[in-house]
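User: Fold this one for me? It's Transcription antitermination protein NusB.
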Amino acid sequence: MSEHEQQANTPPAKPKSARRRAREFAVQGLYQWNLTGDTVNNIEKFLRESSPQFARADEALFRAVMYGAIKESADLIKLLTPHVDRPLEEVSPVEAAVLLAGAFEIVHMPETPYPVIINEAIELAKTFGGSDGHRFVNGVLDKLAAAVRADEVDAIRAKRRG
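Assistant: Here's what I get for Transcription antitermination protein NusB.
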């Protein structure tokens, strides 16, 4: 099958939601903050000016996740550390940014079901990270959710069982 035929048989990509875009920009901002230590205001300005897609993101979610994860980073790192199999400094910067964003949502946004947060984090890790980074992110955030949202995790698991 030719490349053109393969492309013709591939379903069109689903358009990204405003919330997915917000999470993507938040992860990019956290990545930049982790590497440069720049201020959140400078990072937000850079992201706004460097991508025309920024206007299509859910700005409230972007700001909540990026600013919140940076502000709460020390506490989030303490919560993540028991679930990571190596020092957090050894985790790739992309995966660290995805973990911070996901951890912030799990801890501070109980209105969003934890499976949604984890699925979004997996997709972000697939988009920006290494080949198996999404598995690592999934495992860490799943353990964090079980520790932080035990009642919700138990209810969902009980529902799946029967």
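One thing worth pointing out: The two ends are 44 Å apart (CA to CA).
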